[in-house]
Prior knowledge:
The protein is α/β, with parallel strands linked by helices. It has a domain at about 25-190: 3-Layer(aba) Sandwich (Rossmann fold), CATH 3.40.50.10700. It has 13 helices and eight strands. The protein has helices at about 15-30, 40-45, 50-55, 65-75, 85-100, 110-125, 140-150, 165-170, 185-190, 200-205, 210-215, 220-225, 225-235; strands at about 5, 10, 35-40, 60-65, 105-110, 130-135, 155-160, 180-185. The strands form two sheets. The protein has a six-stranded parallel sheet, with helices on both faces. β5 (about 105-110), α6 (about 110-125) and β6 (about 130-135) form a beta-alpha-beta unit. α2 (about 40-45) crosses α3 (about 50-55) and α2 (about 40-45) packs across α13. The longest helix is centred in the middle third of the chain and has 15 residues, at about 85-100. It is globular. The chain starts with a strand and ends in an 8-residue tail after the last helix.
Amino acid sequence: MKKETYFGVEVSPLSYEEIVDTLKLRIHSGEQSTIIAVNPEKVMAAQNNPQLKELINGSTFQIPDGVGILLASKLKGGDIQSRVTGVDMMERLLLMAEQEGYKVFLYGAKEEVVSKAAANIQIKHPAIQLGGYENGYVQDQEELVERINESGADILFVALGSPRQELWIRENMPRLNVKVFQGVGGSFDVYAGHVQRAPEGFRKLGLEWLYRLMKEPKRFKRQLALPKFLLKVLFTRKDQAR
């Protein structure tokens, strides 16, 4: 699978449809797959965090979540045509699960969040098979792994925050029969209705980050990673950016 690389961090140039089609083939052949969202903040953080870089590059699909990744690809003549956001990727996987009969398990977040998310997912996708859910405060990890396996889950969404969720996935993958793992951060909050996404106009223009900044000004320091990343891409030779 050809990937683009930005300062040592890999990004998959595939669309939602291409990822879903590839996952169906991998599930059919019994292969496990992992999905991680990549944005400029993670790329910049990975420069000083070898473990984070290893987690990202060790995933099957590194989806271009941030608009900065899309812009960087265009600046460098890459193949990324559109963003693939974590929450929208989760929705595509839920739809795939409903259509193909795959079982889903949710793990992470607070009890009131994950339980409400599960209920709302069942309403939105009435034919989906939810194998179960568990909040992110489970103490007995052995029991959790056993429960997920007993559920027969094919797809597991983990919402523990990054990179904790990716570390959990990497540690437990060998013991799980799950075929698709996605770390989804705060997506359960969206499905639970506790967090509202940016209006569609902002999302279409790739300005979801601006909407969130207006709603949460305290995010300003984190958002500085976007201009820093783009300036670094702009003033770095194509071969050096890799």
